[in-house]
Amino acid sequence: MPDRSTRDHLIEVGLLHMQQTSYCSTGINRVLALAGVSKGPFYHHFQSKEEFGSAVLQRHLDAEDSRTAKALSNSVLGPIKRLRTYFEELISVYGPHGSLNDTPETTPQLQPNFLATPGSLGRLR
User: How far apart are CA 100 and CA 8, in angstroms?
Assistant: First the structure.
């Protein structure tokens, strides 16, 4: 595997794992096992877990920037429909509770005062 794709693979695996757990709950050994990569290549690309975490966060932010730009820059749609498209995209990625791993069952403060679903945004048309 070329260096660049190994780095990207580690970042993608780390991002998926951190989305399901958290940064603090993510151990390097677990990421390496999930990625099928040994410690040598990891430390070739990252000096520490903190540097790896920074790269994972940057990947997440780049994806969010791209998602936002794509949804909100569609000049074919009016402004309200662009916002609706953007929020529907967020719901499809993060779920109706706003997080990949937070649900009313695991996070009591998320008990539904408002539960966003694509259908609930229909009144914005």
Answer: 21
